[in-house]
C-alpha cells in the first residue's frame, strides 16, 4: 500500500543527470554529465546499507541508498545518476510504486573513495 508523502520528508534538493560525450581540448571523447530538463527535484534520501570492495588494489566503500521522489512525467533509468551537493548516486533500479504515477523509489549506490 502506498503511504502518502509529506512535504517535509522531501528535504533534499537533488539533480537528475544524464551522460553525454564531448570532445576535450585534445580532441578526445570524454563522458560528461548534465542535468535533464526539469531534473532538479525534492527527494528523501535514506541509507539502506553498505559494503566494501577491492578496486585497483584499493578498498572502496559502497553505500546503498533509497531515494524517494514524487512522480513526474520524466523517464528515469539506470543510465541516469543523481547529484546531491557534491555526492553522486548511481541509479541501480527505478520503481514506480504500485504503477500509480505517484512516487518513484530509486535504489542507488554512492561510491566513496
What does it look like?
Helices cover 0% and strands 68% of the residues. By secondary structure, the protein is mostly beta strands. It has one domain (9-112): Thrombin, subunit H. The chain has a 6-stranded antiparallel barrel with strand order 1-2-3-6-5-4. A hairpin with a 2-residue loop joins strand 2 (29-55) and strand 3. It is globular. The model has no long low-confidence stretch (mean pLDDT 90).
How many helix segments?
A: 0
CATH topology grouping: Thrombin, subunit H
Helix/strand-derived category reads mainly beta
Strand order of the largest sheet: 1-2-3-6-5-4
Q: What characterizes the major β-sheet?
A: 6 strands, antiparallel, barrel
How many separate domains make up the residues? 1
Going by CATH, the homologous superfamily would be: Bacteriophage SPP1 head-tail adaptor protein
Helix content: under 10%
Total count of strands: 6
- Mean pLDDT, rounded to whole units? 90
The ordered H/E elements are: EEEEEE
Proper CATH architecture: Beta Barrel
- What general form does the structure show? globular
Q: Cα-atom Rg, whole angstroms? A: 16 Å
CATH class: Mainly Beta
Please indicate the percent range of residues in DSSP E strands (runs of 2 or more): over 45%
Low-confidence stretches: none
CA distance, first residue to last residue: 38 Å
